[in-house]
Amino acid sequence: MQQNKKSLNESYSKTAYPLIGHGARTAEVLLEAFDDVDGGQSADMYGRGAIIEDFQSRMAEALGKEAAVFFPSGTMAQQIALRIWCDEAGLKKVAYHPLCHLEIHEEDGLKELHHIEPILLADKDRLITLEDVQRLDERISCLLLELPQREIGGQLPDYGELEAISAFCRANGIKLHLDGARLFEITPYYGKSAAEICALFDSVYVSFYKGIGGIAGAILAGNAEFTAKSKIWKRRHGGDLVSLYPYIVSSDYYYKLRIGRMKQYYEEAKELAMLFNQCEGIQTRPEIPVSNMFHVHFRMSMERLEPLLVDVLDETGVGLVSYLRETDDHSCFTEVHIGDRYSQVPKEDLMMAFRLLDEKIKRAALV
Amino acid sequence: MQQNKKSLNESYSKTAYPLIGHGARTAEVLLEAFDDVDGGQSADMYGRGAIIEDFQSRMAEALGKEAAVFFPSGTMAQQIALRIWCDEAGLKKVAYHPLCHLEIHEEDGLKELHHIEPILLADKDRLITLEDVQRLDERISCLLLELPQREIGGQLPDYGELEAISAFCRANGIKLHLDGARLFEITPYYGKSAAEICALFDSVYVSFYKGIGGIAGAILAGNAEFTAKSKIWKRRHGGDLVSLYPYIVSSDYYYKLRIGRMKQYYEEAKELAMLFNQCEGIQTRPEIPVSNMFHVHFRMSMERLEPLLVDVLDETGVGLVSYLRETDDHSCFTEVHIGDRYSQVPKEDLMMAFRLLDEKIKRAALV
Description:
The structure is a homodimer. Chain A has helices at about 1-15, 30-35, 50-60, 75-90, 100-105, 110-115, 130-135, 160-170, 185-190, 195-200, 225-235, 245-260, 260-275, 300-315, 345-365, and strands spanning about 15-20, 65-70, 95, 115-120, 140-145, 175-180, 205, 220, 280-285, 295-300, 320, 325, 330-335. The first copy, chain A, is α/β, with parallel strands linked by helices. Chain A folds into two domains: about 1-25 and about 260-365, Aspartate Aminotransferase, domain 1 (Alpha-Beta Complex); about 45-240, Aspartate Aminotransferase, domain 2 (3-Layer(aba) Sandwich). In chain A, helix 1 packs parallel to helix 14, helix 4 packs across helix 11 (about 225-235) and helix 14 runs antiparallel to helix 15 (about 345-365). The longest helix of chain A has 20 residues, at about 345-365.
């Protein structure tokens, strides 16, 4: 299985037209971002200097918040956000989704470093609803919502539900924090600006290496008291680096380059999901994407599917899928997120790849 | 005073020959490091990939340790080192110098995030001795030694004293951690390799933006069990960035460029300290430097000295001092660290600057 896995990844990396994301994660990402940078530009020093302060100001404005702080990672930014709200309320209890990044990808930093207890709302298969929040029988300091909910394919609540959750939290003294790792990517679906969405939240984190495609880095935004506290915690975490400009310059560059393309990525995601859904035994989640991402579920085991996919990729040069992951029910899935690459794939090659995939799956079903 | 301070800094930044360090902290530092980097070079991904693993291996070898982990900051690396040793001993107590970086520059991250209690050894004016360690009347998990002790001018214990402290710690089940932010810079004075010095310690942190002059970044080294644990804590802290290569590439580049120059910087520091010490009312600490750094103490108030220095800098174009800091006894001091710049200053200009400084101080003393 390890061997198969490697071979799909190998095939993908050799395709003429990989579908996923913006491009390979190489040093070129940095070189392009720094191509026009003046060598005399002063570095930031421990959070000070025009290069960091200007970007923070522009991001505060884009997110409609009083202030913003650049962080090396979202992991650091979000733990700190929850810690600040817990300290303010004098209660180390928060609520979030069972598949929240803090719960499954951070080695329990929130618990180990901050001793904050999370209550898991909803369940692994669905979004948090207003009812889930209303039914909480314990007091919490902060509710974290991730928009879109990445681990279930990038789903979103109706905007009205979101407004109702926000109103409920405000009425009940619960701070609302936005895990907006993919915030910019959902603005076309909601038909709202980032600032309009953020207005429903007390604090917000956004990432610069998802849809934006930078190297790394995050912004945490909120009121000035909140961001001032976050800088103290940033130093405690070891995130107040002498200079963060490699990440700031690239975040800024790719933000400017791609912020206007979010609608295009969203439309393309819907198109691609439709092509997947037309194939035998394939279903996307959500069926109609609400951002630039979705999951593709295959009703076939990974062992059987992987060689078929390798054939399709090798024969057509179109990288439909870069990896597979097994699910509990012995089927498998992959994640797709649209960036600059999709529009570069010739439509006829794309169609051929889907036809071939559909044929191969149908043939395999007969065996 | 704020005005004077600004003006010395301004004068310094306009001098033809600033003395301190390697050069201005500008984007050029990154551009130079990436000049020969192939755009196709793959990025590191969450601690994996040749670009991070190769550098870690080479640093483990240079430090004579089993393994090494690249961290975005020393603040993060050192808190984690102490946490691992405390957890292993089941005792959240360590000892370090009162002017240790963790005590004065990290917003108490060690206490706030790790709940580790530090015992302050020695006092603010001198180094930790073997006797200080022997006299400890409480059990500790780990002793941190900073070599050289930056905040007192970069002083070092005799090597024999260091060996004796190491032997005592080993005999008494105390882990010994090296704050080696300036480790490479002390190898010429001790006449030992970095690995020989590190052999006295269980874990070691080194920095890449002090004598090495990179952008940011640190290495934490020790045995494989220790470094494996440090990776988990690195993720918890939010330091396991998707890609750290901007710091790794620049650390590697400047390490190769400057590791062979440490003896030169050390010899130049001794020369420059001698020139300061020949001036009226000026004394360096240590009198004879043991690394590339020292402090310069002036027996004059900052208000009186600053205009004199501004005149010297403006008249000679030699940047002897970039800032001043007041001390408790109403005199003042500055820190000097030697890098690539010192050797570029014409000797006659340097001598003229010191003559002028000496004259001005003597004249001021008569007023």
